[in-house]
Amino acid sequence: MISGILGFIFDIVFLLFGIALIVRAWAYAIRLHPFNPYSQAVIRLTDWLVQPIRKLVPPRGKVDLPSLLACWLTALVYLLATWIVLTGQLPAVQALLPALVASLLTVLKWALNLVVWLTLIQAILSWVNPMAPIMPVLHTLTAPLLDPIRRIMPNLGGLDLSPLVLLILAQVAMMIVQRFAFAALAV
């Protein structure tokens, strides 16, 4: 029971840190104001890892390569640590390439989890507290994903089903990523 609880905490810590790195990269891409208190929290949380990488790999255009690379490295450490805890040994050399691919798929899974949670939180807050201080940030983060769906979806008289469509698409994408992750690790 204790090992299950510790494993859960381990998973959550890596998931939340990976998501923070993805939020940082996404905020950079959509030019979210860096002095926003929510942006500042993410920057402070992730600076210790991103800044050293930024000295070696600068951002390119709208792509925050240092944050994405930091997220990929975090996923790699997460998978290797999980492997070591479960097996009690380091992975074999031939497992390195599958681990690199699986860590990339883990980043995709974290990104899809982020999409789901941002969409759910925004939808719930739009019903219970549309004036919440975080709503403009949530709107800015989700608009690039929801707006194309809104252009395709018919207008249902004030009922916006685009979050539901995005949630379904994200869940389907997570299933596909999970399938590829299992295939990558089946070495």
Mean pLDDT across every amino acid position: 92
The number of domains = 1
Q: What level of helicity do the residues show?
A: over 70%
Major sheet: size, sense and barrel closure? none
The count of β-strands is 0
Transmembrane segments: 6-27, 65-86, 92-112, 124-146, 166-186
Protein name: YggT family protein
Pfam families: CCB3_YggT
InterPro entries: CCB3/YggT (IPR003425)
Q: What does this entry look like structurally?
A:
The structure is a single chain. The protein contains six helices and no strands. The relative contact order is 0.11. The protein is an all-alpha fold and about 190 residues long. Helix 1 (about 1-30) packs across helix 2 (about 35-55), helix 3 packs across helix 4 and helix 4 (about 95-130) packs antiparallel against helix 6 (about 160-185). The two termini are about 30 Å apart. It has one domain (about 1-185). Helix content is about 80%, strand content about 0%. The model has no long low-confidence stretch (mean pLDDT about 90).
Write the layout of secondary structure elements.
Blueprint (H helix, E strand, L loop, with lengths): L1 H28 L7 H20 L8 H23 L8 H33 L6 H18 L9 H24 L2
Helix pairs in contact: 1-2, 1-3, 1-4, 2-3, 3-4, 4-5, 4-6, 5-6
Question: Which characteristics define this entry?
Answer:
globular; mainly alpha; 78% helix; 6 helices; 187 residues; transmembrane
